[in-house]
Amino acid sequence: MKLKPGVKFGNPVMAICFASQVAESVFTKYNYGYIITSVNDGKHSEGSKHYTNEAIDIRTKHLPDDGVLKKQVASEIKEALGEDFDVILESLGGQSEHIHCEYDPK
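Now predict its structure.
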């Protein structure tokens, strides 16, 4: 599932729900479970889009440890979502490793 270039969401919550569906399809493609670990709960940096329901964190610890698949999954999610979404593989190899995905229209 991809967005045509130029597609804009009027509602950021709708955008992050779409992003979640896209991310789930990528995890399913590789036969791994899709687990959201945070939306607007937990502790995030000041001004985080988590607090406005415009960001999700996705578990990656259950993917192979070499990091190659983790980077590939994050890349495929980013490619499908386009420039209005930030997709970052955070803390690779660390205890708080996850994919952070937020709606950040340019």
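The chain has one domain: 12-103.
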